Automatic annotation (TrEMBL):
Source species taxonomy: Eukaryota, Fungi, Dikarya, Ascomycota, Pezizomycotina
Keyword Phosphoprotein among UniProt keywords: no
UniProt domain Rhodopsin: residue ranges: 29-206, 223-314
Topology in membrane: Multi-pass membrane protein
Name this protein carries in UniProt: Rhodopsin domain-containing protein
Keyword Cell membrane among record annotations: no
Start and end residues of each stretch annotated as Disordered: 370-394
Residues annotated as transmembrane: 6-27, 47-68, 99-119, 139-163, 183-209, 239-262, 290-314
Subcellular location as annotated: Membrane
Keywords of the record: Membrane, Transmembrane, Transmembrane helix
Domain of life the protein comes from: Eukaryota
Source organism per UniProt: Cercospora zeae-maydis SCOH1-5
Primary site of residence: membrane
Length: 394
């Protein structure tokens, strides 16, 4: 079992630890903020709990799978017959992990999306009258719910009632079950399209409200209190936006991998997945790549839905820090300004002193010259005559 590129036992175990820890920390901040500032629960506060449980469970599964060398490694070279009809214990354990993982990943992604959509309702919903956002938001909630239920059902019954075939030989998987990679591909594509729609809705709403900023009647339709954002809020919003964008990118990468696997379909001896070249029979290497990016998408998405609701907590926590930084910058600017003023004043004084010294020296020289002239003895007549050339010798 070699190690290719960035997906290996260490990296798989790392993300299995990092995302649950960060996720639980972010969830704790979110709950703290809700209890401190609102003391009430909304639907999104309930939906995020099963999402958190599934994120942690998937992370534990990734760590265990890495320790057992099920995910992050590579299958040894084997013939086509060995791949299709072989039944090593290692492969059976990996297939059981996959079966549970794919069901769980649909649930956690679905709950995460619903959490974000219901949270958005608290920000953009209309007051008294229905708005375009209300209709679009409810449509997206319906789409995500149907998507989640449909794909959970398909993942559970992908082999009909022949559940054993899901973790038997590859031959049994291909003959008793639907095309699993086609199922994963359709799930990844639809998931990514929904991500794009959900990601775009807040951006469109903020742009719409900003464009109607001068119309007070339009602004009264929305519960927006943070369009005039402070520097702190802008930094927070930028970080959450970046995380959301990374979630979409991770979903795109996962989609590309499963499409590449589906297109290959064991037709070529080698397959390239996101720049990583694998033997076609190396199903462990291909599955490891897909599981890796799936869990990255899950983990980052969960962080986003936790952090978007933590604005007031971060405001309180970062307020003293920003005030301290502002005072430091102000003090540094003041010191620099005073130093510049002193330097300018010193330069002017130095120039004045130099001028005074030059005048004083000049005056002294002139006075000394006149004094010397007064005290000097008269030049003898014979010397003056010799200089004029009129000296007469006797």
């Amino acid at each position: 079992m070699g190690s290719y590129h960035y997906v290996n036992f260490a990296s798989v175990a790392a993300i299995g630890i990092i995302f649950p820890v960060l996720g639980l920390f972010a969830l704790g901040i979110r709950i703290y903020g809700r209890v401190k500032y609102t003391r009430s629960l909304d639907i999104d506060d309930v939906l995020i709990i099963p999402a958190a449980i599934l994120v942690v469970a998937a992370g534990v599964g990734m760590v265990i799978a890495a320790q057992m060398e099920l995910v992050g490694g590579h299958a040894p070279s084997r013939t086509f017959e060995e791949l299709m009809f072989g039944k090593p214990e290692h492969q059976i354990m990996l297939e059981k992990l996959e079966y549970a993982y794919w069901i769980g990943h649909v649930l956690v992604i679905g709950f995460t999306k619903l959490t974000f959509l219901f949270f958005s309702r608290r920000i953009f919903r209309g007051r008294g009258t229905r708005t375009a956002f209300d209709y679009v938001n409810w449509i997206m909630i319906g789409v995500v719910t149907v998507w989640m239920v449909a794909y959970v059902f398909l993942e559970i019954f992908m082999c009909g009632l022949n559940f054993w075939a899901a973790w038997d030989t590859v031959y049994a998987l291909r003959n008793y079950c639907m095309d699993t990679f086609a199922l994963l591909t359709s799930c990844a594509i639809t998931n990514w399209v929904i991500d794009l729609a959900i990601f775009a809705i807040p951006l469109v709403m903020v742009g719409l409200i900003r464009s109607r900023k001068g119309e007070s009647t339009s602004l009264n339709k929305y519960q927006i209190n943070s369009l005039q954002m402070t520097a702190r809020r802008k930094i927070q919003a930028s970080l959450v936006f970046a995380l959301g964008l990374f979630t979409v990118i991770a979903g795109l990468l996962r989609m590309i991998i499963v499409i590449q696997v589906l297109e290959n379909s064991l037709q070529e001896p080698m397959i390239t997945l996101l720049g990583t070249e694998l033997d076609t029979t190396d199903n462990e290497g291909a599955i490891s790549l897909i599981l890796f990016w799936t869990y990255v998408e899950i983990g980052v998405g969960f962080l986003v839905v936790c952090l978007v609701a933590c604005g007031r907590v971060f405001d309180d926590a970062s307020g003293p820090v920003f005030r301290k930084l502002k005072s430091i910058v102000s003090a540094a600017t003041s010191v620099a300004s005073r130093a510049s003023s002193r330097s300018s004043l010193f330069s002017e004084r130095s120039n004045d002193e130099k001028e005074e010294h030059r005048i004083s020296v000049s005056t002294k020289v002139e006075v000394v010259s006149k004094d010397e002239e007064k005290g000097m003895p008269a030049v003898p007549e014979w010397l003056q005559a010799s200089r004029r050339g009129t000296l007469e010798l006797d």
